Amino acid sequence: MAKRDYYEVLGVSKSASKDEIKKAYRRLAMKNHPDRNPGDEDAEARFKEASEAYEVLSDDQQRATYDQFGHAGMGGAAGGGAGFGGGGAGFGDIFGDIFSDIFGGGGMGGGRSRAARGADLRYDLDLELETAVDGDTIEIRIPTLEQCETCGGDGAEPGSPVDTCDTCKGQGQVRIQQGFLSIQQACPDCQGSGKKIRNPCKKCQGDGRVQSSKTLSVKVPPGVDNGDRIRLSGEGEAGEMGGPAGDLYVQINVKPHEFFVRDGNNLRANVPVDMITAALGGEIDVPTLKGKVSLRVPAETQSGKTFRLRGKGVQSVRTSSPGDLLVKVSVETPVNLNSKQKKLLEELQESLNESSHSHSPATSSWLDKAKRFFGEHLN
Q: In this structure, which topology does domain 260-335 adopt according to CATH?
């Protein structure tokens, strides 16, 4: 069964703000949560569907990918796609916000952690086909948020005391009563940290993180292809208040090649062949990723004929043997003929017409079909 559009699932427009998306999801989650609908499989399915839609649309990167490619783009999106395994903060936050008090407190992990994990990052790495096939180690430079070295990530000037927040008593969260609901949310005074900093760190302005950039070495394994991802654990953004760093996902983009098109483990190439070689047979040079090889072209080869060169393709990261090179020949008609050459071709044409054999099987077959077609439709 095809997946429904995420915006349709949440009942919002494609231009909806983050706040509108969050409110729509809260409404659906409250209505369909399994704890409120025990034994109702349909409600559980709607709950999971809404959760998946919110996980994608609440993350700017994943939402942009989804808007461009739809569900097809979600298989390898940075941050774990729709599988709830990434470092995006939306899923855990909203459940701690809504359900920790309603369904027994702490059922979803006790609410928001004060030391929050850093965001995952994505880096698009463009590779030549040869590099993707052979593998390499490549240096990349990425902008990121790193833990402040001056304060060690706690946001306070070194030597300055850090007090417990009076409003939330160090819990980082407060409860607000709304009718019969008791909603837990981040403390507005300490923004969920549970602390009150007297003297913020001058370098990071109390955030615990600073904008920076770093150079990383990425080991590209042989055989990677478009859409493959390389995960660098702990190389994403630094966490808040000393929390663990997120991961960096390096997305592989293989550039178009002047000769080859990759098709799984195989390579495809179009090679022109002159009319005389195609008719009489001969040998032509064919490029491969390891240098040129000689290909025997049989006599009477027709345009579009495909030859298979075994083992001249790609050995991907998932297989133990290489694919093949599929060479499709295109018979080329001569151009810029002089009068002598034209005369020779005219003589050849006359000779072929006088022969009792069919020298153009495809043309003869087509003409027979055309005669039958017109005969049937003109009678």
A: HSP40/DNAj peptide-binding domain (2.60.260)
